[in-house]
Write a structure and sequence with these properties.
Elements: E1 4-9, H1 14-25, E2 30-37, H2 41-51, E3 55-58, H3 64-71, E4 77-80, H4 82-90, E5 95-98, H5 106-114, E6 118-121, H6 124-141, E7 144-147, H7 150-158, E8 167-174, H8 192-196, H9 205-213, H10 215-228, E9 235-239, E10 245-251, E11 256-260, H11 266-274, H12 288-291, H13 305-316, H14 320-336, H15 343-355, H16 364-384
Parallel strand pairs: 1-2, 1-5, 2-3, 3-4, 5-6, 6-7, 8-9
Antiparallel strand pairs: 8-10, 10-11
This protein binds nicotinamide-adenine-dinucleotide and magnesium ion.
């Protein structure tokens, strides 16, 4: 097999680290072109040196001197700034992992897509914000988007290319997060530490909070809408606490196909990394007898108001998903920083959606304007909430 030249955007995060783990297990199969991070110089430089990367880039320009120092004498190029990350994304990789968190990843993803690259997409916020713009850019350049989010990777595996028009429903499973069984009255007291402790998956802080509010599932419905070109009415989410079935595709004949696997991101990442072939991973085989049972239940709308907000943003389309995402990013950051309570996350998203109604963005710049506008409003709402929680 030819050596695959890979780039990892967000190489120091949870998904980035899992991707590196797979690549480093098969050093002869992969060549690393570029690795990027926000500012975790130590981790980025170590990974670049271990993998003999051609280039390492930090998004935060202030971190460049430290990166240059860490890479001195290695022959690895060090670059810094948001543009440097986009330049790294546009380098000639065969496969690019998009694993930056949030809309901060949008420009780099677009830079790779515009070059017609094969992009493995973990960074759902980029697609949620720029859905139509991103899909159009991929089609224009002939780029390939491979789903890495475990649900979307499952759907991708269950979708029969010849029968795409014969799909009746796509059902995304959700773990329900750490608070699925909490008394609702206690949910106002949820702390950041409790919210990031996910029962099934080990992930970055932002997506862990999104899982706890179930905004993550809402973002994923929008992500599925764009990735698979299915109507909002065909998409459903169901709580499945064991996280063994990662999603399902139901066809018009009544057959439902599911993909199963352990709750470890290396499984969907490996699928995207080897696609259209398969590669071995260190995962233990699924022990279904030990798992014993698979449970399913409807998501409780009272407990998870974020899910309904996301569904209506998906149905309305236009700028709504970008506003939803931007407000959520601001609110989650404020929650993690103890500036607002857990229940205010969805409330701030709702207030921002009600206060702001720009037209549908038709370019990358227009998406970024909507994103910036929504962030300003959400930040005002955070400031006005006057909630100061003892850390
Ligand atoms: P993380 O917080 O662990 O890592 C984020 C990465 O992005 C880091 O490398 C960080 O340096 C980089 N980054 C942060 N801000 C940046 C900026 N402004 N500019 C450039 N780089 C920046 O996040 P994660 O959990 O790995 O998630 C990454 C993405 O993958 C998210 O969109 C998340 O929703 C998605 N995802 C994650 C998982 C998971 O298991 N962690 C599963 C499915 C999807
Ligand atoms: Mg997911």
């Amino acid at each position: 097999m030819a050596v695959k030249r890979v780039t990892i955007l967000g190489a120091t995060g949870s998904v980035g680290t899992s991707t590196l783990d797979l690549i480093e297990r098969e050093p002869d199969a992969f060549e690393v072109i570029a690795l990027t991070a926000n500012c975790d110089v130590e981790k980025l430089a170590a990974a670049a040196i271990r993998t003999h990367a051609r280039r390492a880039a930090v998004a935060d320009q202030r971190c460049l001197p430290a990166l240059e120092a860490a890479l001195a004498g290695t022959g690895i190029e060090a670059t810094g700034g948001a543009d440097a990350v986009c330049e790294a994304a546009a380098m000639d990789a065969d496969w690019t992992m998009a694993a930056i968190v949030g809309c901060a990843g949008l420009k780099p993803v677009m830079a790779a897509l515009e070059q017609g690259r094969t992009v493995a997409l973990a960074n759902k916020e980029a697609l949620v914000s720029a859905g139509d713009v991103m899909t159009a850019a991929s089609q224009a350049s002939g780029a390939t988007l491979l789903p890495v989010d475990s649900e979307h990777n499952a759907i991708f595996q269950c979708l029969e290319p010849a029968n795409r028009t014969r799909v009746r429903r796509i059902i995304l499973t959700a773990s329900g997060g750490p608070f699925r069984d909490w008394p609702i009255e206690r949910m106002a007291t949820i702390s950041p530490a409790q919210a990031v402790a996910h029962p099934n998956w080990s992930m970055g802080a932002k997506i862990s909070v999104d899982s706890a509010t179930m905004m993550n599932k809402g973002l994923e419905l929008i992500e599925a809408h764009h990735l698979f070109g299915v109507a909002p009415a065909q998409l459903e989410a169901i709580v499945h606490r064991q996280s063994v079935i990662h999603s399902m595709v139901e066809y018009v004949d009544g057959s439902t196909l599911a993909q199963l696997g352990p709750p470890d991101m290396r499984v969907p990442i490996a699928h995207a990394l080897a696609w259209p072939a398969r590669m071995a991973t260190p995962m233990a085989p699924l022990d279904l007898a030990a798992i014993g049972r698979l449970d399913f239940e409807a998501a409780d709308p009272e407990r998870f108001p974020a899910l309904a907000l996301a569904k209506s943003a998906m149905e309305a389309g236009g700028a709504r998903p970008a506003i939803l995402n931007a407000a959520n990013e601001v609110a989650v950051a404020a929650f993690l920083d103890n500036r607002i309570g857990f229940l205010q996350i969805a409330a701030i998203v709702q207030d921002t959606l009600e206060a702001y109604d720009p037209g549908a963005p038709d370019s990358l710049d227009a998406v970024l304007d909507v994103d910036a506008g929504a962030r300003r409003i959400a930040a005002d709402r955070v400031a006005a909430s006057g909630h100061r929680i003892a850390p």
